Amino acid sequence: MDVPSGHIRAGFTTRWGGVSSEPYDDFNLGYHVGDNPRYVQENRFRLASLLGVMPVFMDQVHKDRLDNADFLTSQQIGEAPATDGLLIGVHDIKVRHCAAAVMVADCIPLILVASDRPAGAVVHVGRKGLLAHIATKAVQALGNPENLTAYLGPSICGKCYEVPRNMQEESARLAPGISSTTSWGTPALDLPSALIAQLAHAGVGNVHSSPVCTLESPDYFSYRRSQRTGRCAGVLHIEDFSGVF
Length: 245
What we know:
Elements: E1 2-3, E2 6-12, H1 37-51, E3 67-68, H2 69-75, E4 85-88, E5 97-104, E6 108-114, E7 120-125, H3 127-131, H4 134-142, E8 148-152, H5 165-174, E9 179-181, E10 187-189, H6 191-201, E11 206-209, E12 232-240
Parallel strand pairs: 3-4, 8-11
Antiparallel strand pairs: 1-2, 2-12, 4-7, 5-12, 6-7, 6-8, 9-10
């Protein structure tokens, strides 16, 4: 999409189109899962070739910390920051191209996109991050929530995310409406529904949520399906046309 002084692209990868072998076949983007690092590097290069820039990846820690991807890009940081959200365009740092990625294998890859300026965020929203309101913090960091669009990528659905009863009850105290029931009748959590509610409460009215469940679809990696698996990504690429480069 074109925005004032910039251009924004956002999307979600599948598990296909890369070079990794089983059980990471084949477009695995995570170094930390046990895949051959050379394969992961090639997969990331393929993604970068599509974008025209290498995305900033995170060392995701299931907390509520946010960092600035444009600052990391400008400083050419060699290692991934220990964070669960990357912001682009929230500071006056003149980076012509900037891309950021959030890796997932059942958690929600959330992309926030501003319509009034070249700005946005990628956010890793698992159970812990959702209960810590990381998405709300990202919305507040970007500002002007009425101008934000949220994209929730494929994730495990409320009919498949089975949890112990005590975890369900604890989660419901922090995020009303998160409770669900699996298709086989056991306690579950519906993270997408809870996240949509949090975004609405934060003032984001334009929300698009993928209907795809990562556990059910063979096109996506799922940690619940197999703990030895790869990572898909939600990717945000922003070109800032303002200023002098």
